[in-house]
Design brief:
This protein has nine helices and 21 strands. The protein is an alpha+beta fold. Helix 2 packs across helix 3 and helix 2 runs parallel beside helix 4. The structure holds adenosine-5'-triphosphate and magnesium ion.
Length: 370
């Protein structure tokens, strides 16, 4: 178990600047998830930590030791690759034992280690089989077993569940989380799936075009995003972004979304916006913070809308409507709306909205007390 410290790391492929000055400190034992769109540099960063790519500048330290010039095999890192490959002519046992043998682990230690890892991953009944005799999920477990059987300082996972169907993915996600709880190892896990990031991470590092956009605990990023990009990336369906103008009237601050649609902002949370009165802002509302009118909670701003699309999911129903010119999604109770074309009364929880400066897309009010 070791901490990882990265300073101003840059990586180029020819002219392509892929990692653009990453600073990152990961405490020992933490489960960190690197998340971001395809092509933002997640795998490159992970491969550079592992030593499979050379850093063009900056430093990487593990447990206080600079490793930039240390060969991958001497960095004491175990990695599960995006496209993991098992040795087809070796049994599951031998595949898992491979890294131990390569490191000259005494023979009598290998069997118990492989068996313990296999038991943890529920593949102990498959040790004599060959990879071609396994399902996709079983193969993926073997690949994970091969990495965790080693007593490495740092564990790196690059989208290890990408080849699985949705149900198996959910299961394996739970198993990986349990694995981390049992082993207490420092783990870095790459995914472009924001749900996976939210459910697994102690800390999410959200990357965008080779840089860190924001990092923090999952709920911290979800509830207090620093930028429109983070607000829109986390959450499904995505946050609604609605252009509005900030006004002040007799009852306090409000947002004009369209002629006749004005939403009052609770003074306790948005008082500091007073000096922006008259300016354009972007209102950010999560679909789950819009509901049928009727609850008597304070700071619920009423709106009347024409439902254009109804999408039941079973437990909840997503509806689409226009708020001003913006197509907006709300997550309602299953039976709140029957069909498109209905005109209904909704309410927006203004205690939970965020406000964004449209000129730089930074969040200027995120619902914390002003
Ligand atoms: N070996 C390579 N040579 C040249 N360019 C590369 C190489 N590997 C990656 N790239 C480029 O670097 C950028 C970042 O790639 P990377 O694989 O790190 O992205 P990623 O965030 O892991 O994406 P994904 O979610 O699709 O796996 C991409 O533009 C990619 O085309
Ligand atoms: Mg990748």
């Amino acid at each position: 178990m070791a901490d990882l410290h990265i300073e101003t790391l840059h990586k180029y492929y020819g002219d392509n600047h892929v990692v653009k000055g990453i600073d990152l400190s990961i405490p020992a034992g933490e489960f960190t998830v690197l998340v971001g769109q395809s092509g933002c540099g997640k795998s490159t960063l992970l491969r550079t930590i592992a030593g499979l790519e050379y850093a063009d500048s900056g430093s990487i330290s593990i447990a206080g030791q600079r490793v930039n010039d240390i060969a991958p095999k001497d960095r004491d890192i175990a990695m599960v690759f995006q496209n993991y490959a098992l040795y087809p002519y070796m049994t599951v046992f031998e595949n898992i034992a491979f890294g131990l043998r390569a490191r000259k682990t005494p023979a009598q230690e290998i069997t118990p280690k492989v068996q313990a890892a296999a038991k943890m991953l529920a593949i102990n009944h498959l040790l004599d089989r060959y990879p071609r005799q396994l399902s996709g999920g079983q193969l993926q477990r073997v690949a994970i077993g091969r990495a965790v059987v080693r007593n490495a300082r740092l564990y790196l996972f690059d989208e290890p569940l990408s080849n699985l169907d949705a149900q198996l993915r959910d299961e394996m996600r739970g198993e990986i989380k349990r694995l981390h709880q049992e082993l207490g190892k420092t783990m870095i896990y790459v995914t472009h799936d924001q749900i996976e990031a939210m459910t697994l991470a102690d800390r999410i590092v959200l990357m965008r075009e080779g840089r860190i956009e924001q990092q923090g605990a999952p709920l911290e990023l979800f509830e207090h995003p620093a930028t429109k990009y983070v607000a829109g990336f986390l959450g499904s369906p995505s946050m609604n972004f609605i252009p509005a103008q900030l006004h002040s009237d007799a009852s306090g601050l409000c947002l004009n979304v369209a002629p006749g649609i004005s939403l009052a902002l609770p003074a306790a949370r948005f008082g500091h916006m007073q000096d922006r009165v008259g300016s354009q802002v972007m209102l950010g509302v999560r679909p789950e913070h819009i509901q049928r009118q009727g609850s008597e909670r304070p700071a619920m701003a009423p709106v009347h809308v024409d439902i254009e699309l109804v999408q039941p999911t079973g437990s909840r129903t997503f509806v689409e409507f226009k708020l001003g010119d913006s197509t907006t999604v709300a997550e309602l109770q299953a039976h709140d709306v029957q069909r498109s074309g209905e005109r209904i009364a909704l309410a927006i929880d203004m205690n939970r909205v965020i406000l964004i400066d449209p000129s730089n897309e930074r969040v200027i009010a995120n619902g914390r007390q002003a």
